[in-house]
Amino acid sequence: MLGKLVVFGVGLIGGSFALALKAAGEVGEVVGFGRTLGSLNQALQLGILDRAGFNVGQEVSSADLVLIATPVGKTAEILARVVPFLGPQTVVTDAGSTKQDVVAAARAHFGGCLGRFVPGHPIAGAENSGALAARVDLYRRKQVVLTPLAETDAASIARVRDAWERCGARVSEMTAAEHDGVFAAVSHLPHLLSFALVDDLARRENRDLLFAFAASGFRDFTRIAASHPEMWRDICLANRDALIEELDRYRGQLDVLREALVRSDGERLAATFASARTARREWAEKGAGG
pTM for this structure? Predict the structure, then answer.
C-alpha cells in the first residue's frame, strides 16, 4: 500500500489513477497539483484528491510515489521541480505518450536519483479531458508500458508496476526508442490524420452541408479529433522524427491508392481493402487495445 501519492495533473489520466488506487484501498492519501485552483477544487469535490498541494518540497519529500500526468511539454519542468525534494523512499513516474524526450529530461535533472525514476505510458486515453472525465475503471484490462532506464532500481520498477496492476492494468516493458516508434504508428499518426481531416472540412465554404451529412464513418474516424489540442501538440513535437517517418510512409500508401484511382484499377483497390479488413478483424478478435 502506498502511504502517500502526489499527482501532478489531476485530469483524466492522473485523476483516474488516483480513483482506482483509492477504490482498491491501495493508497492512504492523495495530494494533487494543478494549473488552476478551479481544477484542484473540482478534483477535491469529486473525491480524486484528499488535499490540494501548494508546497512542492513539503509534499514530495514525504511521498511514496509521484505521478506526473501533465501534457508532455511540461514534464521536464516538473521533473526539475521535484528532484531537489525527493525523500529517501520517493519514486517518480510519468504517464506521457512519448518516452525518449522524458528519459532525456530525467538524465538532465535526476543525477544520482535516476534509479528512482520509472517512465510509463498508460494506453487508455479518451477524447475528453479534465477531472470530470476521470473514471475509476479507466485502466481495467488496459495496457501500461514502462520504459525503465538501465539505471532504474528494480524496487522502483516493482512499485510502479504494482500500482498500475492494482488499477487493473496489464503492464509490459520496452525501450523508450521502441515505444516511440510503435506509438508514432498506432497512436500519434491516427490523431494527426483525424485532426487534419476535420480541420480541412471545417475550412471549406460548404462546411455546414458536409457536416450535416456526416454519419457513423466520419464519427468513428474523427472521434479522436475531439482530444486535447495542447496535449497532442506536445506529443507530436516530442515524437516528431518518428511521426514524420510514419507520415511519409502513409503518404506513400495514399499515392498508391491515388494511382489506382487514376488508372481505374479496381483490383488494386480491392486487394488493399481486403488486406486491411483481414488485419483489422484479426486485431479486433484478439481483443487488442482493450
Answer: 0.88
